[in-house]
Amino acid sequence: MKRDIVLLFFSLLVIFCAESSNVHVSRHMEPYMDISQICISGEPKISSEYAYVEKHDKLDSLEQILCNKPQIQESVYMHIDNTGYFLGDTLWYKAYVMRSDNFKPTNISRILYVELLTSDGYLVERQQLALDENSTAYGQFAIKDSLYSGYYELRAYTKWMLNFNVTEKQHNFFYHHHFYNKQCEKDYFRLFNGLYSRVIPIYEKNKNSENYENKWMQQRPKQRIYTDRTKLNVCFFPEGGQLVSGINSRVAFEATNEEGKAVSLEGVLTNGDSIKTEYMGRGSFLYTPTNEKAKAIFNYMGKTYSFNLPKAAEKRVEISSEKASLLLSIPVSLF
Q1: What is the C-alpha separation between 154 and 115, in angstroms, rounded?
Q2: Which of 10, 34, 322, 327 has the fewest CB atoms within 10 Å, measured from its CB?
Q3: How far apart are CA 245 and CA 267, in angstroms?
Q4: How far is it, in rounded angstroms, from Cα 61 to Cα 56?
Q5: pLDDT value of residue 134
Q6: Alpha-carbon dihedral angle through residues 5, 9, 15, 16, given to the nearest 10 degrees
Q7: Phi, psi for residue 12 in degrees, rounded to 5
Q8: What pLDDT score does 60 carry?
Q9: In the Cβ-directed half-sphere of 331, how many Cα atoms lie within 13 Å?
């Protein structure tokens, strides 16, 4: 009896070990099995390792396709309601966006950008239009009376078109002063050769509403105003608000450049005293005014600047403080 029990126990142990080894082998081989052989209830059962390998294979194949085949581009075509306009008119247009490979409505972009620019390249207005199922869009530009007459540019594009045929017009450092920063300068001289572009004449508003044969343009002024960026500004602030002739007074001053930023500098008065800024373009000095005109002379960025000191008064009450002492000076005159 005991012998039968022992044999039964060893038999169950052998069966259990065999099943455990089969499960281990199947789990170990699962990532390398064919996807068609791993199905439960008709749904594929893919391990995380197999999915990772498959995903990267697809990305590699997509990258290979983009490298070997030319990328699809888009083209914009537009119809406008006239060939020329007057100030105060409305420009109506209809746009079509097509694929360049088969000339069918595009399925890449869904937003169209339409711009109206002056003859100098400055943007007047930009519109964003949603394309319909046929990749068409409608819109209009109201040409304001405040604009100058001249030849304007009508430009249309999609964001996908900006990826191709982009160049930068050659220019030199002379144009740096015309822009707020370098990025604005790059945007102005960037050329998009693949965009839709059409030049449209816009004439001065005709005073006679019945006769439109007389068309003329008034050129906008071309002269630019240049500002001296090395200009120095110095303001003086006498203690008590007013200088008094013959009385030694403290005068504060502030020095700034053309942009209003504080500058540090040194100067000299006409009487030979040296002055300089102490902090953030500000300083002070002691000065005894006379009846003669006095100036402060500074050297800034290779240029010499002179500024008149405030005019001194003959009869005033002056209050000045020097540390803990208080000086009160009252000139008295008998009439």
Answers
A1: 6
A2: 34
A3: 22
A4: 9
A5: 93
A6: 150
A7: -65, -35
A8: 65
A9: 12
Measured torsion, CA atoms of residues 316, 322, 328, 332, in degrees rounded to the nearest 10:
-50
Q: In terms of pLDDT, which residue wins out, 229 or 94? A: 94
- Residue 218 CA to residue 174 CA, distance in Å, equals 27
**Residues 74, 79, 82, 83: is their CA dihedral positive or negative?**
positive
CA count, 13 A, side-chain hemisphere, 27: 6
Is residue 243 within 8 A of residue 313, CB to CB? The reply is: yes
- The amino acid occupying position 271 is N
Res 290 pLDDT > 70: yes
Structure tokens at 314: 């003959």
Amino acid at position 26, single letter: S
Which residue in 55, 76, 234 sits closest to 160, CA to CA? 76
| DSSP H helix total and E strand total for the chain | 3, 21
Radius of gyration of the chain from Cα atoms?
42
Q: What is the pLDDT of residues 126-173, one digit of tens each?
A: 999 999 999 999 999 999 988 889 999 999 999 998 888 777 777 776
Nearest to 197 by CA among 154, 137, 150, 141: 154
Place of tokens 């203690």: 239
How far is Cα 293 from Cα 271, in angstroms, rounded to an integer? 11
pLDDT of residue 85: 93
Q: What is the pTM of this model?
A: 0.47
